[in-house]
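Question (not urgent): is this output format expected?
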Amino acid sequence: MSDTDKHVGITVGGIDAAVEFYTSVLNCRLIRRFTPGGHDGVRSLVGLPSADLDAAFLALPDGRVLELLHFRAPQVVAAEPSPAAVGTVHLAVPVTDLATTLDRLKARHGTVVGGPVQLDEAALAYVRDPDGALLELIESTGNDDD
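Got this back:
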């Protein structure tokens, strides 16, 4: 089993832009990029007979692994479900400076959904990456301001 076998995956609109966003805004580290392309095994795995894709593995600041997938085919329009929609998922990402991270996020076409707020011992914000993926940014503050 490799270090990238345990990961969370996000489908993105373009691999280059997504890698740039996650490395520059969230301080992720690129592990490797690869092009499974239209491999029959990948097509079977994702259940799309016409699938053709690019991918990248990134290390999140806490060491978890994020897989970015860009489907060149089939073309599908992105959707932005409500955070309350059944089946909606979000990725929690630790940050060291929430305000600075939010500034970088907005400068690179991410959007703030809610927050920042102080809950227990953390400053939190719900945001979307440029492709609409929902992220929860968490800065440990040590303040307990219920």
